[in-house]
Specification:
The chain has 248 residues and is an alpha/beta fold. The protein folds into two domains: 4-168, Vaccinia Virus protein VP39 (Rossmann fold); 177-240, Helicase, Ruva Protein, domain 3 (Orthogonal Bundle), CATH 1.10.8.100. It is built from ten helices and seven strands. Strand 1, helix 2 and strand 2 form a beta-alpha-beta unit. Helix 4 runs parallel beside helix 6 and helix 7 crosses helix 10. 34% of the residues are buried. Mean pLDDT is 93; it is low at 243-248.
Length: 248
């Protein structure tokens, strides 16, 4: 990111204090990292490019509150943190969301490709609503706080971007998470079909009576199901399966 006004806006939105431990994914040359270090108690900067790591080491010498973590965020171990502030590589956006949800945090300010950001905040029944939206919506609330023009980056990408806020929910309905992910993966593979029809196939693969689908799923298409309705389907399946569940 080369646009300092956008960088400053991200920092402002993060509302950092000395009590925050902030995770940055894809620290690059440290333009954002330096500003985070000035405001947060500790910064965990993840970067896998060896050349950029050397640049980071030089740029961050004045700060003793930054911990450089070399490697791929999807694979490395990360200490506990409560906030995420980052412009991560767009190529790992989906996997990044799932990993962050596993690790847990309080609040994140992230820059994503605009189309991807719109998937995160999509409403049920719309074109961009899918399994990713549901997985995030079950555990967190997301909203778009602003848009970022492509000229804010070098090299200039082919797409515009958006700033997304993600706040973890204080409470989440207790379910077999592996079963929920397995179920939603199956259902959204046929997102435009009636949920009952798709669920019949899922019940059959689990060795259960297909006729139960009528009493388990609402009379809606898959992409019209709200998060709460999907959680209810999962809960009923757990009862039928005796709490055994399926692996993710």
């Amino acid at each position: 990111m080369v646009d300092e006004s956008v960088r400053d806006r991200i920092i402002e939105l993060a509302s950092l204090s000395g009590s925050d431990t902030v995770l940055e994914i894809g620290a690059g040359k440290g333009a954002l990292t330096v500003e985070l270090a000035k405001r947060a108690g500790e910064v965990l900067a993840v970067e896998k490019d060896p050349k950029l790591l050397r640049i980071l080491e030089t740029a961050l010498k004045p700060f003793d509150n930054v911990r450089l973590i070399p490697g791929d965020f999807l694979e490395v171990e990360v200490p506990r943190f409560n906030k995420v502030v980052s412009c991560p590589p767009y190529s790992i956006s989906s996997k990044l969301i799932f990993r962050l949800l596993q690790l847990g945090f309080e609040r994140a300010i992230l820059v994503f490709q605009r189309e991807f950001a719109e998937r995160l905040v999509a409403k049920s029944g719309t074109e961009r609503y899918g399994r990713l939206t549901v997985s995030l919506g079950r555990r967190a609330e997301a909203r778009i706080l602003g848009h970022v023009p492509r000229r804010a980056f070098r090299p200039i990408p082919k797409v515009d971007s958006a700033i997304v806020e993600i706040v973890m929910r204080s409470s989440v309905r207790e379910l077999d998470e592996g079963l929920f992910q397995d179920l939603t993966r199956y259902l959204f593979s046929q997102r435009r079909r009636l949920a009952r029809s798709v669920l019949r196939g899922y019940l059959s693969s689990a060795g259960l009576d297909q006729a139960l689908a009528h009493s388990i799923a609402p009379d809606k298409r898959v992409f019209e199901l709200e998060v709460g309705e999907l959680e209810e389907i999962c809960s009923k399946l757990e009862e039928l399966m005796g709490g055994a569940g399926h692996g993710a």
